[in-house]
């Protein structure tokens, strides 16, 4: 017997999916901003003259990159109340863990971008009398950030996908909402198909945008590949 | 003689086990142009980099404007990076590879140091930048980005950038070696003009014509020591010691003496 597709229920329930999508968007935006901020600091640590700062950066990046994101999420979900004494909401645990997760990966983007700036640029800035911080702020980062944009775009896509992990701690993002609807309607195939379509429609343009920007940079000689 | 701007005493510099500078004593007076010549690998760049502390001396003392740089501790010098930043603002450096900041316009390249380090108001900094850019004959490119300029133009901007900090001394590390031959002249002319204006300069160069015509004193570096020094007419024309003679034999045939340079012809402004 062939499966009979029936999307009719979604015509009624789509506002719920929209609420879920809003949860995804909020989690994505906050974790992306926090993650890029953490990444900037850690990326600079990783290139700093101080060995201690470099080691701190390395330990953090390697610890996060070599453990599954799902385990980090669950770990934070239980660790936050133990450390802070507050009952961690699913939202807080998701934001904290995804920020830290994105921070580690974007730190690598910053580090590579900073490393791609020629030694002569640092030296010229140093010779004028700029200290490490000013060299970074006025000379290196402005040049490096441009080269990092495509990588940040890819990171944003990865993070959008990773937000679905938060469904495991019952945070009301798109996948969690879909799960509830699927069980309620006993129509998992249709529901998850809808989720897949939504992700594709939103992320595909971003993905193409990154490729386009990368090509444009490469044409202008702005991107150093390794 | 006039006052000392730079005094180097017993300078040694080693990279690991490789001792590159083996006890250098050198003094540069105000308004003086000293040319540093020597074979590749003799330690010329290392010497310049020690003077503005892009590399730390292993041993020895460096005095700038009569002040000892660093702190004495147990017979050795100790340097604090934060103090050295201030020292570097008083030492201008021009690199072989120009190293202009590509994301900034010519004008911004020249003003960023005075504005961000010295706290000069932007309006004043721009006025002074214009003055330095005029000196090196490149004021008309003030709004351009470095990538729009020829190598010779970029190097002249790099000179203006260093001058804008109003340094006590200007260091040039083979400022014309990366240039196409037809662009070398315009940079040498700009440097000559600075020297004639009384800028204190320590110049590493392979352009012996420049050294002959512009330097007050020529220093020949050989294997990390000052092997011979004196007025250019002596060192470049009648060197007394064998290594200097060998070195010059490789150059003189086609470079000495340089045809007379006329500042007006190559530098407009
Ligand atoms: N950062 C460094 N580490 C190790 N060795 C170096 C370094 N910089 C220069 N050297 C060595 O020091 C010697 C002198 O170099 P350099 O000062 O650049 O000479 P020059 O400028 O006269 O050609 C060379 O043998 C070079 O290989
Ligand atoms: Mg050299």
TrEMBL record, chain A:
Q: Where in the cell is it found?
A: Cell inner membrane; Cell membrane
A GO term from the CC aspect? ATP-binding cassette (ABC) transporter complex
| GO molecular function (one) | transmembrane transporter activity
Record's Gene3D superfamilies?
A: MetI-like
**Which key words are in the record?**
Amino-acid transport, Cell membrane, Membrane, Transmembrane, Transmembrane helix, Transport
**Where is it chiefly localized?**
membrane
Topology of this chain in the membrane = Multi-pass membrane protein
The residue ranges crossing the membrane are: 27-45, 75-101, 192-213
- The residue ranges of the ABC transmembrane type-1 domain are 21-210
Family of the protein in this entry: Belongs to the binding-protein-dependent transport system permease family. HisMQ subfamily.
Give the protein's recorded name: Amino acid ABC transporter permease
Its ancestry begins with: Bacteria, Pseudomonadati, Pseudomonadota, Alphaproteobacteria, Acetobacterales
Automatic annotation (TrEMBL), chain B:
What cellular-component terms does GO give this entry?
plasma membrane
Q: What is this protein called?
A: Amino acid ABC transporter ATP-binding protein
User: One Pfam family from the UniProt entry?
Assistant: ABC_tran
Membrane topology annotation? Peripheral membrane protein
The cellular location(s) given in this protein's UniProt record come to: Cell membrane
Q: Which family does the record claim for this protein?
A: Belongs to the ABC transporter superfamily.
Cite the GO molecular-function annotations of the record: ABC-type amino acid transporter activity; ATP binding; ATP hydrolysis activity
């Amino acid at each position: 017997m062939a499966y009979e597709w029936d999307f009719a229920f979604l015509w009624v329930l789509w506002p719920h999916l929209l609420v879920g999508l809003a949860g995804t968007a909020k989690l994505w935006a906050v974790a992306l901003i926090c993650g890029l901020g953490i990444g900037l600091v850690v990326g600079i640590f990783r290139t700093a003259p101080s060995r201690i700062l470099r080691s701190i950066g390395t330990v953090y990046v390697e610890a996060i990159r070599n453990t599954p994101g799902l385990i980090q999420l669950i770990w934070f979900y239980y660790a936050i109340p133990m450390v802070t004494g507050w009952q961690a909401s699913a939202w807080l645990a998701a934001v904290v863990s995804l920020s830290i997760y994105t921070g580690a990966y974007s730190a690598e983007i910053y580090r590579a971008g900073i490393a791609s700036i020629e030694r002569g640029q640092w030296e010229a800035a140093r010779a004028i009398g700029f200290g490490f911080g000013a060299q970074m702020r006025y000379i290196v980062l402005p040049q490096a950030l441009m080269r990092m944009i495509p990588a940040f775009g890819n990171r944003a896509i990865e993070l959008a996908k990773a937000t679905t992990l938060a469904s495991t701690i019952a945070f009301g993002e798109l996948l969690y909402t879909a799960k509830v609807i699927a069980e309620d309607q006993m129509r998992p195939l249709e529901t998850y198909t809808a989720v897949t379509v939504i992700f594709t429609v939103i992320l595909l343009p971003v993905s193409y945008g990154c490729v386009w920007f990368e090509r444009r940079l490469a044409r202008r000689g702005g991107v150093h590949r390794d | 003689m006039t006052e000392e701007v730079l005094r180097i005493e017993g300078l040694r510099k080693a990279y690991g086990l490789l001792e590159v500078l083996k006890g250098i004593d050198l003094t540069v007076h105000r308004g003086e142009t000293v040319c540093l010549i020597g074979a590749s690998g003799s330690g010329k760049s290392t010497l310049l980099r020690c003077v503005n502390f892009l590399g730390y001396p292993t041993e020895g003392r460096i005095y700038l404007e009569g002040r000892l740089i660093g702190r004495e501790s147990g017979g050795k010098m100790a340097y604090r990076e934060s103090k050295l930043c201030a020292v570097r603002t008083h030492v201008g450096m021009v690199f072989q590879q120009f190293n202009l900041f590509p994301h900034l316009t010519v004008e911004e390249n020249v003003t960023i140091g005075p504005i961000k380090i010295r706290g000069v108001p932007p309006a004043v900094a721009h006025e002074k930048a214009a003055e330095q850019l005029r000196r090196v004959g490149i004021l008309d490119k003030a709004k351009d980005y470095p990538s729009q300029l020829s190598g010779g133009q970029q190097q002249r901007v790099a000179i203006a950038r260093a001058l804008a900090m109003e340094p006590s001394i200007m260091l040039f590390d083979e400022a014309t070696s990366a240039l196409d031959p037809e662009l070398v002249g315009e940079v040498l002319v700009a440097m000559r003009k600075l020297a004639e204006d009384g800028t204190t300069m320590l110049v590493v160069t392979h352009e012996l014509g420049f050294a002959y015509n512009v330097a007050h004193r020529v220093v020949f570096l050989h294997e990390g020591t000052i092997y011979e020094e004196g007025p250019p007419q002596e060192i470049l024309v009648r060197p007394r010691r064998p290594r200097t003679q060998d070195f010059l034999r490789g150059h003189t045939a086609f470079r000495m003496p340089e045809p007379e340079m006329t500042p007006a012809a190559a530098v407009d402004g």
